[in-house]
Every structure is written in C-alpha cells, then in structure tokens.
Fold each of these.
Amino acid sequence: MNVIERFVERLLNNSTPEAPLWNIERLGKNIINGWNYIDGCMMTALLNLYEITGNRRYFDFVDEYISYYVHEDGSILGFNEKEYNVDSICEGRVLFDLYRETGKEKYRKGIETLYSQLLHHPRTFEGSFWHKQVYPNQVWLDGLFMAQVFYTRYTTTFENCKNYEDIRHQFNVVRNRMYDPETKLYSHGYAAGNCIFWAGEDGRSKTPWLRSIGWFSVALVDVLSYLAEGHEGIRRDLSDIARELAQNLKSYIDKETGMLYQVPNMIGREGNYPETSGSSMVAYFYLKGARLGVLEPEYAERGAAIFKSTCERYLTETDGKLNLGGICLMAGLSGPHSDDKSNNGSYEYYIKQPVVENDAKGLAPFLLCYTELLMAGKVEEILGK
C-alpha cells in the first residue's frame, strides 16, 4: 500500500455517513451530512479504486455508506425531488455498480427515485435542465457532470438508449451557448433569456472558472465511457467537443507550476493561484480521454504531468499524515431571489473563496487520476516509490 492508499485508508477509518472527513463544507458548518454530490464524487473514486486494485475494503465501505442513505423502499435520506437540484443526481451513479454487484433491490429502487426527478425536471426553452429550482433558467457547466452521467447510465441500462438524443442535445446547447470564442474556454454559467444580473448580453457569466470547466471535461469522458456501441451521432458530437476543449486547455497549463489556475485565463494576476480540483479534473480528462481513444495518446503524458505537479505542490505531510491542499472550497452563482449579489462570476469573486485541504471536490478527481495512472503502470514513476 503506497502513500496515497494509506492516505485514503486514514480518511475512511475516520469517516462516517454522518460526518465524512472529505466534506469540508458540512464539517465547517457543523451540519449533519445528507445525500449530496460531494460524497457522490468520493464514492465514485472509491469504486474506481476497488475496480483497479481489487481491494474489497473500498467496495464494502461504499456499500455500507450508501446503504445508510438508501432505504428499502428506494427513498433516500436527505433527497427532496421538489428541489429539482441536479447536484442531487450525482451520487446516484454509484447505485448502478452497487446494484449490479450486490443485487440489493433498494439500490434499483433508489435509481428510480432519482430518475423520477429527471422526468419532471424543469428545462430552459432549449431543453437544458435548470441547475436548480431556485436558479430558474440557469445552466451551469457543473450540471453536465451532476446529471448527464447518471442520465446516460440509466438510459443505457434500462431504456435501450432511447434518450441519447436528449443528452446529445444538452451538450450541444452548452457548446453553442457557453463557449467563449475569445478565450476558447467555457463560462461557468448561462442564463437562458439573459434573466439574471450576472449574465451578459449573450447570457453568459463573465469569467471562466477552472473547476466548472473541469466538471464539464469529466462529464464528457464519463458519458462517452457509458455509451453503448454504435450511436455514432452522440459519440461524434461529444468527441468533437472533447477534442476541441483538450486542445484549448493546453495553452492554459502554467509552464512554471505545471498546473492550471483558479481563473485559468489570468495566470499571474494578483490573487490567482494553481488550483487542485480543476487541475485534477483536467488531468483525469486527459488521461481517460486518451485511454478511450477520444484524445491523442500525448494527452496521457500531459495528464500525468499535471498530476505529478499537483503532488509536488500540494500533497504534503504533517505529523505523519498526508494532506492534499490547494482546493477551492466552493464557488456558485447567485439566483434571482438571493440577497447576496457577490456571487457574480467575476474574477474577484472566484479568487476570494476559501482554499482548503482534503475536500472531495479536489480529492476525488485526484484519486480518479491515480486510478488512471495505476492502469497505465505509471504510479511508481510519479510518486518515486
């Protein structure tokens, strides 16, 4: 067991469903944990670790953890469909793996509970899922990761792929509406109909945020990995978007640090910094995209280099305990009924957000990179042991 797996073991040993060490938002507010996307990211990473290492400890932890939230009738502790929050869908992707391996019917019912939300989820006039009920007509890059991976798994597994065109369309709307031709990056949010104060005339938020682009990049390769054979229309469109994004992101990798910055197009500006979660997501995007054959093989080397740079800069040891730093805690956009207008998608907003250690929004994609490197046999080369 190397240093990273010992690090994960320490987190598992000291985490419970009510208080996981990787959910810094909940711990910081002393809130009892509930069904949420942050845990969903961590559970996904742990299942990947199980798949690659064969260590049953990871699977059993996820099974016990998720079982706490999913009841026998398929209802889910802390889930409220009427919030119509795409974040609530994210954790559901692990239910497919748990159901396949355990046969527990409650996991199958839990899948249906979450899918029911998507069947009724409000949409923009173009057919994109709203990010949340309280953010009417807003589409965030984050939401593609939160909802579309689950949506793809569901329609592939249970519907003979009937909703692929809907999924394809929602990715294409994001490419058409949220791509900034000047930076060749994507805006964090888009307000259909220009219906919120932070939206410009084109409906887009002002400043690209690295982690939101990271969410989108991960969504692309994860959805591609769950598509059934054939279906060349959706595969072609998503692959084209992925290749364009991969090419454009190359110029935003900082030559000095080997990472990408919190606000990726403003390297060197006061307050900006190399950020772990978004850099790890881009690294995973590169590594997995190359493995799937969506991206050219050279991107695997770029992904490995970003991971290595992140380890060198932010993986530190204190009192014998490993910690992963440089993680932006959170950064959202305001809804129409919010009294706080500071969530305005500006440069100043993104750089003032708290930076923490060990939060799953950074740790999970870091571990996903690690599993890709395990498959490629490159871990010892990077870690040096």
Amino acid sequence: MIEVEVKGDIEYAIRQLKKKLQLDGIKKELKRREYYEKPSEKKRRKKAESHRKLRKAIWRMERES
C-alpha cells in the first residue's frame, strides 16, 4: 500500500503520490486496463516487454565487462 504523509503543502503531497505510483507501475497498469486489450495484442505487448528486458540485461552485462 502506498502512503504519503501530508504535513501542510497538499500540492507537494500530490506530486509525491504521483511519483510513487509511477515508480510502482500502478499508473501504467491503470492506463493499460482502461480499455479492453485483445489477446493477440496482449501477447505482442508481453513479447516486446521481454525483448526490452533482455536487451537491457545484455547491455548491462556488456557495460560491466
């Protein structure tokens, strides 16, 4: 559960909440669930995500050596 303590400035607390939601991935998930996603589109999206993660891991390994 995401919590933000408000100590006066509400605008600051809202910015902190939005930042925490974005880092946690909730904002992205809500946007994705806003509309129905066909199974073929879901499969394509997951495949693209896995390729992105793999490329990122390979890039990190190359950078370390």
